[in-house]
Write a structure and sequence with these properties.
Four Helix Bundle (Hemerythrin (Met), subunit A); 7 helices
């Protein structure tokens, strides 16, 4: 699907590497990607940060990081990496809101990919 490759390039994702994780099956990739907007880990991360529950925030962020990495969502992956390292040390940071906002924006952008791809199919 040339369209998927073009969308990937605009988003800043390595199409070839990502498709290799899905055995070259764009259909399988799109099926998994379609689950992204329903994933609850962004909400869990937000709630845990608000509660100061850094272990729970780390768990949610770590899950998001793995998901973003496997799906080739480079921008989301980078945003999550920026918040996960401070969470790993469980040291309170004063910029949690800024870091979370970046993750939220990239999550929404990635979820927008799902909708964009639905429109062009």
């Amino acid at each position: 699907m040339a369209v998927l490759k073009e969308v990937f390039q605009k988003y800043g994702t390595d199409y070839e590497t990502t498709m290799s994780r899905f055995m070259g099956s764009e259909q399988m990739y799109l099926k998994i990607l379609a689950m992204l907007p329903r994933d609850e880990n962004l909400h869990k991360l937000d709630q845990a940060l608000q509660a100061g529950d850094y272990p729970a925030a780390f768990d949610a962020a770590h899950t998001l990081k793995g998901m973003a990495g496997n799906l080739g969502l480079a921008r989301l992956y980078q945003a999550v990496c920026a918040i996960i390292e401070p969470l790993r040390t469980q040291v309170p940071e004063e910029d949690w809101a800024v870091l979370f906002q970046s993750v939220k924006e990239e999550f929404e952008r990635a979820a927008g990919l799902v909708e964009l791809l639905k429109e062009v199919e």
